[in-house]
Structure prediction request, 121 residues.
Amino acid sequence: MAATNKIAGEEFREMSGPIKHIVMWRLRGETAAERSAARTKVKTLFEGLKGRIDGLTHIEVGEDISDVDYACDVVLVSEFTDSKALKAYATHPEHLRVREQLGDLRIGRFQVDYPVKETGA
Prediction:
């Protein structure tokens, strides 16, 4: 059984192998223009983490284009070498800087972390 640890208030299970970390947010904004600016800010700040955090092997940020009222505004899809790298990311100064710069811009947050399984062709 995998060990469970808490880092920065979040629980992490120790696992070997790559981990996919997906986060979706709903953002503040009274108008479409305000939410568009918020999406751009989130995208720019998180994409700025590329190459700056050991163990972060992939990061992409997508902005919702569906215009349905139940959709999140932004999705972050990232991959880490293992659960230790994901734990280190949670408290990494660059990641914490991004979180601080975003402040209360995010009003809803949904997250899924799961092991990446190799697929056979």
About this structure: The two ends are 29 Å apart (CA to CA). The chain has a mean pLDDT of 90. Residues 32-47 form the longest helix (16 residues). Strands lie at 4-7, 10-13, 19-27, 56-63, 74-80, 106-115.
